[in-house]
Specification:
By secondary structure, the protein is an alpha/beta fold. It is about 40% helix and about 20% strand. It is built from 11 helices and 9 strands. The strands form 2 sheets. It has a 7-stranded mixed β-sheet, with helices on both faces. A two-stranded antiparallel ribbon has the order 1-2. Helix 1 (about 5-15) packs across helix 2, helix 1 packs parallel to helix 4 (about 50-65) and helix 6 runs parallel beside helix 7. It starts with a helix and ends with a strand. Bound molecules: glutamine. Glutamine (GLN) binds near residues 93, 119, 123, 124 and 183.
């Protein structure tokens, strides 16, 4: 079979299975199997793929057709131009979260200390370390399994970070210039309405923000004063409808310069503030 033929069969199989982004996923899976680029498919669509590649591709298409997330099949997700290992123990890094990283990078000076709560795959902390110099990074997560992935990601990127297993600040010591977090923020009642890929394959503990979704913001904002240096900043990713609530919480806790930043879809995405 040629690239073009097998791609078409993959796309049709995913469409038939009701996969939203059938075209894109069929192409990305083909590229992952054949180690090729989008260009190869366009320009060299008449090239034959090997039998082995064909078998692997059909297998991966079948997995994707059963709503297994694409990233669990390929094992990786790109974030901030870096490749992160992922599996069912971590939240798959989302493009929206790049806004948080970019906002922090605006203010981050070399040599700063950074604490990332609910670090998961480590994508936020490791990106910040990768795009700065001499910063000290600590990532905390309640899941040891998640930290196994975060440590692997640090190794693969050649970065040094310390990872602590605990409930938010439980194992954290010292004070930081930056505390960042993308905590679980989906209200428990909304979990059932999520797409199957997320609901059944991503860790519930990385999604569930309890009754109103704000559980972790309350705790982080209440406790973080003990862990922030004077003039240090807190950056939180939030859901599109949580901006005002989280901003009010931070102002109430005494943060200064509290700001809500929007994402590229013009939705509230990050709340930040400075601690004195
Ligand atoms: N910090 C990780 C991320 O943004 C994990 C977040 C989480 O598990 N809620 O992808």
């Amino acid at each position: 079979m040629t690239y073009a033929e097998i791609y078409r069969s993959g796309r049709e199989a995913l469409e038939a299975a009701g996969i939203g982004e059938a075209e894109l996923d069929a192409r990305l899976l083909l590229e992952a199997v054949c180690h090729t680029s989008r260009n190869d498919l366009l320009v060299h669509g008449d090239r034959e793929i090997t039998e082995e590649q064909e078998k692997q591709y059909q297998g991966w298409i079948a997995l994707r057709a059963s709503h297994i997330p694409l990233q669990h099949i390929t094992g990786v997700q790109e974030f901030m131009g870096l490749e992160f290992l992922v599996n069912e123990d971590v939240l798959i890094p989302r493009q929206d979260t790049e806004i948080l990283v970019e906002e922090v990078l605006r203010e981050l000076t070399d040599g700063s200390s950074i604490l990332d709560l609910c670090t998961g795959s480590g994508c936020i902390l490791l990106s910040l370390l990768r795009f700065s110099n001499d910063c000290v990074g600590v990532g905390s997560d309640i899941s040891e399994k998640a930290l196994t992935i975060a440590r692997k990601n640090a190794d693969r990127l050649g970065l040094h970070a310390k990872f602590l297993c605990g409930d938010l600040f439980e194992r954290v010591e010292g004070k930081y210039d930056f505390i960042v977090s993308n905590p679980p923020y989906i209200a428990s009642g909304e979990i059932d309405g999520l797409m199957e890929e997320v609901r059944l394959h991503e860790p519930l503990s990385a999604l569930d923000g309890h009754e109103d979704g704000l559980f972790f913001y309350r705790r982080i904002i209440k406790e973080c004063g003990d862990y922030l240096k004077r003039g240090g900043s807190l950056y939180l990713e939030i859901g599109w409808d949580q901006g005002n609530a989280v901003k009010a919480m931070m102002e109430g806790a005494g943060f200064h310069e509290v700001r809500v930043t929007k994402d590229y879809a013009e939705l509230d995405r990050v709340v930040s503030g400075v601690w004195f």
